[in-house]
Amino acid sequence: MALTRIGNQAITLDAAEIPNLDASKITTGTLANARIAEASVTQHVTPTDLQPVKSDISALALREATNESSAAFNLPNQFIDTFTDDTKLGTQTTVDRTSGYISSIVTTTGAYTSDANTLALLHFDGSNDGTTFTDSSSHNRTVTRYGNPVTKTSLKKYGTASGNFNGTDEGLSMPDSNSWVFATNDWTMETWIYVSSLPGSHGFELFSQAKTNSTDIGGAFHWTVNTSDKQQFNVYQRNSTTTGDDFNHASTTSLSTNTWTHLAVVRDGNTIRFYKDGVADGTGAVPSSSGYHLFTGALAGDVWISKRAYSNSYGYIPGYLDEMRISNICRYPNGTTFTPQTQTVTNATGTLIQSANTVGSAKTKVGGTMLYKDNAGTATLGTDLKIYFTCNGGSNWTEASSYSAITPVYSTGIKQVRLGETTCTSGTDIRYKAVWANQASGSKETQLHGIGVNY
């Protein structure tokens, strides 16, 4: 039997026969609502890395947050913090927030803490009309009342109280010690003072010592407010063979009444420098001939506050003292202006952990953007400052996969860094952790100025 060819136009395929049709046979026409396998599509498409886009959005959000002085807030799938307050800051271990950044090296204002160079530190804290005065330095010196000075809570600069003296017959003393032997070394004497009247025929004794408690023959030193209402520091031997060792220098500006004033005098090399409220207020030279005889063990009297070291007749302060500190280094060199009652606390290491940050669904990928500043030295990211992420509230932490610089820099001295996408254990509490190491005041200080977290 002869075969008859049937034309394609005469053949109709029903739905059951379509799955058996080789796709290569379809050469014309339009596939309506066709279903194409995902693998058939993605094998020809390069996946899009959205992390750089997310980082750029974070950088913009950080900039906007800074401009608007916002502290910490969430965007869809992002968290932004610029450290203008403690919002969303959780655990802080030997780090602190200061004026929009976090650092393990912190300058604070308030009551001093004793350090290795502190010879004596009197906070003058206590109860109203309290009779206990304490040296808070590591030397723990005995402080003895002369007359009836007391602590007062009604008027103070820092802490709970200040020391109150009646201007007639009240002072404090501490025993002689080898610690007071400054020799040719630098030193600092400083205090806050509030007086109701200015000196008359005799000055106010801030801190002094003499040969004995009854004579200055053989030497003495005195830090005073003199009869011209100015700071004065003088050293003398009262020994005819060593008068070349004597010197007497005064500050430029007079003291005012009924206001707290910070006074300081330092030896800076061979220069005596005075400061009033942190501003340089005159200098004087230590004589080149000076052997500093009286600071090499010649003095054996007590050191005195608010009383002449060798006389009971004068030197009493009519008012208040607070935060007196004596140091065996020059804390304020070169006549440079400083803010009184500040101190820098240096911690080589530190940790900051964000507080709870619950998101709507479980996540396993985190990235972000960081702003930081090399305030001193140059930090190695991943060593001196590390950023970690968690998706499950801190049960597991993973360090950022990479630290990539973003240019241009955010602003003068502040650098932008992209924190690479990081895989973490699945969870709904996404946080960051910053860890500092190798920090050292003056040589390496790394400040974290902002962070944006993408998830």
Describe this structure in words.
The chain is mainly beta and 455 residues long. It has two helices and 30 strands. The protein has helices spanning 38-42, 51-67, and strands at residues 72-75, 78-81, 89-93, 96-98, 101-103, 105-109, 118-122, 144-146, 150-152, 162-166, 171-174, 187-195, 204-210, 220-225, 231-236, 247-250, 261-268, 271-276, 279-285, 303-305, 318-327, 342-346, 350-354, 358-376, 385-390, 398-399, 403-411, 414-429, 431-436, 445-454. A hairpin with a 7-residue loop joins β25 and β26. The longest helix is centred in the first third of the chain and has 17 residues, at 51-67. The chain is elongated and about 150 Å long.
| Global mean pLDDT | 86
Low-confidence parts = 65-71
Strand content: 35-45%
| Intertermini distance | 74 Å
Tell me the number of structural domains.
Answer: 2
CATH class of the largest domain: Mainly Beta
- The coarse overall form would be elongated
Main sheet summary: 8 strands, antiparallel
**Structural class of the helix and strand makeup?**
mainly beta
Rounded to an integer, what's the Rg over CA atoms?
36 Å
Q: What is the number of E strands?
A: 30
Q: What portion of residues is helical?
A: under 10%
Question: Count the helices. How many?
Answer: 2
Query: What name does the CATH topology of the largest domain carry?
Result: Jelly Rolls
